[in-house]
Prior knowledge:
The protein is mainly alpha-helical.
Amino acid sequence: MLKEQGWSLRRSIPHGGHQMALHIAAGLGLGGNESYQGVFQPFGGFADGVPVERGRVRIPDAPGIGIEQKANLIGIFEALAALPA
């Protein structure tokens, strides 16, 4: 739809506020993603050890959708996966 209206994907910066939305925006080639570093934990913020520099972060060079690089978040998913069905 954006392309049909003459807009560049780089001008689209959606609101997501969590780690997975940041990776989705990067995968789609969007201009960025509004994220909250200290809000909506453990989903909010960025991968452990990724610095915010001049209001920007880099996507870690690691496989996955972002949860794998956040110790508090991946631990929750691992605990959920271990629950009996």
